[in-house]
């Protein structure tokens, strides 16, 4: 369809708005309320343009183009209209620019400079509006609000939590939660990015810096398996905020509150130097002594009595270095920190293509709660349900959905009933053009995981109800897929038997709790048997959750089993490779060498010092070997095409009726960095205070 923008001919698709047509030819039309990811509201009237033969200016964001339409964006009428709109918006807007955190990045400030008048005709008293309490993350100064309703539409349309709304009319219009409570979404920080003025700003960022004082580095989110793209802003040697980086294939323009606000945890409760346990205190060590002590333990112990456990949030370079060390020392007890019972070829099986969610019209969730495990995927499910009326069902694992959902049960027996067609929803799946089954990582912790996968494949192979590439696994950890790429097996309790040395590389807090419970059980069993569990335990990582804050007193917080602590580096202090839940290769960036004055080292450097047999003596050597193991590691932001094809299909399988348990209970405290964050602690407390269930139907 041909249209003319300022006498420039442009070809656009039908139903394109005038504003979008203007952007095609590079003409900037000012706007406040319009956002490409939100519905059109037409509130602000800032995007007024002149259309030939139209009696008055029209809103470009809401006006669709028509054949041979002639649009003008720079006529005197348009300029006068924009000037008038800005004058109305500024009537009650306070002169807070010198103290406003939005200063330098404010849409209103910039557009007034370009399109506004140089004087005001308003001499009356400006109105004032009471600020709202929206929780520990969002600071509100509602007198600055221009009622664009971006925040209202985001909460309802994107986050799926309609906690915000407007009250009153005209000049008395206010935006708020109506009842005083926190905004119940894991994506609330995006409201700060959306607000075109300084009405909604970040509480942790308040009065910390101006935009021209900030330097930025691109990185990725390592707090879940989605791998959202982020931008880390820092001033001098301190991170002061984290912002989203647009990537339509992964996170669009959004990020979770966890990665946005947990940066204060990078400085708190850090391991600052090597420490050795002595009775009930920790003794500081220099690096040479710590490496010598550990190296002696590893090289003199029986390889069959050494265990190495790598956390699923560790980068691939570290995991590969650990695998290389295990190979050099002939250590067979080597695993991740999660019980991943995977019996099929990973490269053909266990991934979740994010874009599939946009296409699905019928989805079954099994043993997963995407709102807590992968909030950005949950966002796509919510929007798909809203726009396409996609039907979504769940078996186990769901707590608080942000979209209407039908709950089918809580055990694998309910799943078998679904496969056998004993449930009415099977009709929906049979009719669906693009069905999708997503099962969670919690299923991989079960003893009947292999039977579950084989049952699904065997049944689906016989009835062809669901295409094989529509059966997907949602990984909850940042690099769980990367470890599977490297062939690192899942954890088994057998690994802990008959150990002299146990080497832990940034495992999860849940795994450390498991170790403490395991030792307690063995201690109780030793009263009646010869069982014992007393290995030399080494913990390597950037945070250690069971110590007092910053180790000031060097005292135990609880009876832990670790004997040696080695400080590693966080994702902002080193470059690392991660593979997200769809097997997309992404990399973190080094922002600075270390936070404060911490005597830490990169994890692969520590590992390569422990044996003379290792050959990984440089980061280049590690990267080269990683590309041998995972060919696509050199192709950043690329995905390996995956489809669920079993190697073997077993018969006579046995499934257990144990209820499917959710993997995550507290969204804000799932990672060592977020667990050390004061801000995340406040969010967790606020969430527990206002937590409630909604929009869940039972069938």
UniProtKB/TrEMBL annotation:
UniProt-listed InterPro entries: 2Fe-2S_ferredoxin-like_sf, 2Fe-2S_ferredoxin-type, Mopterin_OxRdtase, Mopterin_OxRdtase_4Fe-4S_dom, NADH_UbQ_OxRdtase_75kDa_su_CS, NADH_UbQ_OxRdtase_ferredoxin, NADH_UbQ_OxRdtase_Gsu, NADH_UbQ_OxRdtase_Gsu_4Fe4S-bd
Domain 4Fe-4S His(Cys)3-ligated-type residues, every copy: 77-116
Gene Ontology molecular function, alphabetical: 4 iron, 4 sulfur cluster binding; metal ion binding; NADH dehydrogenase (ubiquinone) activity; oxidoreductase activity, acting on NAD(P)H
Ranges for domain 4Fe-4S Mo/W bis-MGD-type: 214-270
Annotated keywords: 4Fe-4S, Iron, Iron-sulfur, Metal-binding, Mitochondrion, NAD, Translocase
Gene Ontology biological process terms, A to Z: ATP synthesis coupled electron transport
GO cellular component: membrane
CDD domains, per database record: fer2
Annotated 2Fe-2S ferredoxin-type domain residues: 1-77
Cofactor(s) the record lists: [4Fe-4S] cluster; [2Fe-2S] cluster
NCBIfam families: NuoG
UniProt similarity note: Belongs to the complex I 75 kDa subunit family.
PANTHER family cross-referenced by the UniProt entry: NADH-UBIQUINONE OXIDOREDUCTASE 75 KDA SUBUNIT, MITOCHONDRIAL, RESPIRATORY NITRATE REDUCTASE
Protein name: NADH dehydrogenase subunit 11
Natural source organism: Heterosigma akashiwo (Chromophytic alga)
Gene behind the chain: nad11
């Amino acid at each position: 369809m041909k249209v003319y923008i300022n006498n420039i001919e442009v070809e656009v698709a039908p139903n394109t708005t005038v504003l979008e047509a203007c952007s095609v030819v590079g003409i900037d039309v000012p706007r406040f309320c319009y956002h490409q990811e939100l519905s059109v509201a037409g509130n602000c009237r800032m995007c007024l343009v002149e259309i030939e033969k139209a009696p008055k200016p029209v809103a470009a964001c809401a006006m669709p183009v028509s054949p041979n339409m002639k649009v003008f964006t720079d006529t005197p009428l348009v300029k006068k209209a924009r000037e008038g709109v800005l004058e109305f918006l500024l009537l009650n807007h306070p002169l807070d620019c010198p103290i406003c955190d939005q200063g330098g990045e404010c849409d209103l400030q910039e557009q007034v400079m370009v399109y506004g008048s140089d004087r005001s005709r308003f001499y009356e008293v400006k109105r004032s509006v009471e600020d709202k309490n929206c929780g520990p993350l969002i600071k509100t100064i509602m007198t600055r609000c221009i009622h664009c309703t971006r925040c209202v539409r985001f909460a309802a349309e994107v986050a799926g939590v309609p906690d915000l709304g407007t009250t009153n009319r005209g000049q008395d219009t206010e935006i708020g939660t109506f009842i005083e409570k926190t905004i119940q979404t894991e994506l609330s920080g995006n409201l700060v990015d959306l607000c075109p003025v300084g009405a909604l700003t970040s509480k942790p960022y308040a009065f910390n810096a101006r935009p021209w004082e900030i330097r930025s580095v691109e990185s990725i989110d390592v707090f879940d398996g989605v791998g959202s793209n982020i931008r880390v802003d820092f001033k001098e040697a301190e991170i002061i905020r984290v912002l989203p980086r647009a990537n339509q294939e992964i996170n669009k323009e959004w990020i979770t509150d966890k990665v946005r606000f947990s940066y204060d945890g990078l400085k708190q409760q850090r391991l600052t130097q090597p420490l050795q346990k002595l009775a009930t205190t920790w003794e500081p060590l220099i690096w040479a002594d710590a490496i010598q002590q550990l190296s002696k333990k590893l090289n003199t112990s029986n390889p069959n009595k050494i265990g190495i456990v790598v956390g699923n949030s560790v980068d691939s370079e570290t995991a590969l270095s650990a695998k290389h060390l295990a190979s050099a020392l002939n250590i067979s007890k080597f695993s991740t920190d999660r019980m991943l019972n995977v019996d099929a070829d990973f490269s053909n099986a266990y991934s979740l293509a994010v874009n599939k969610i946009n296409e699905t019209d019928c989805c079954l969730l099994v043993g997963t709660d995407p709102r807590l495990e992968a909030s950005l995927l949950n966002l796509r499910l919510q929007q798909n349900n809203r726009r396409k009326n996609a039907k979504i069902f769940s078996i186990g694992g769901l707590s608080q959905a942000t979209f209407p959902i039908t709950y089918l049960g809580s055990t694998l027996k309910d799943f078998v009933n679904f496969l056998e067609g004993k449930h009415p929803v099977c009709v929906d799946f049979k009719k669906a053009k693009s069905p999708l089954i997503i099962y969670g990582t919690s299923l991989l912790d079960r003893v009947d995981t292999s039977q579950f996968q084989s049952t699904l494949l065997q049944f689906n192979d016989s009835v062809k109800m669901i295409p094989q590439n529509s059966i997907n696994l949602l990984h909850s950890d940042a690099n769980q897929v990367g470890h599977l790429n490297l062939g690192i097996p899942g954890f088994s309790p057998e690994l802990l038997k008959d150990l002299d040395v146990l080497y832990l590389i940034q495992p999860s807090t849940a795994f450390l709790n498991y170790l403490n419970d395991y030792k307690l059980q063995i201690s109780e069993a030793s009263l009646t048997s010869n069982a014992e569990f007393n290995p030399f335990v080494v913990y390597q990582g950037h945070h250690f959750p069971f110590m007092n804050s910053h180790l000031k007193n060097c005292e135990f917080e609880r009876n832990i089993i670790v004997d040696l602590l080695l400080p590693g580096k966080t994702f902002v202090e080193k470059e690392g490779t991660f593979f997200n839940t769809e097997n997309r290769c992404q990399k973190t960036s080094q922002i600075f060498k270390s936070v404060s004055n911490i005597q830490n080292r990169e994890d692969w450097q520590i590992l390569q010092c422990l044996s003379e047999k290792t050959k990984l003596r440089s980061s280049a050597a590690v990267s080269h070997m990683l590309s041998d193991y995972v060919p696509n590691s050199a192709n950043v932001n690329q995905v390996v095409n995956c489809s669920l094809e079993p190697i073997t299909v077993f018969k006579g399988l046995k499934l257990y009726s144990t209820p499917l348990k959710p993997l995550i209970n507290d969204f804000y405290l799932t990672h060592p960095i977020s667990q050390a964050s004061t801000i995340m602690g406040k969010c967790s407390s606020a969430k527990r205070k206002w937590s409630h269930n909604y929009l869940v139907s039972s069938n």
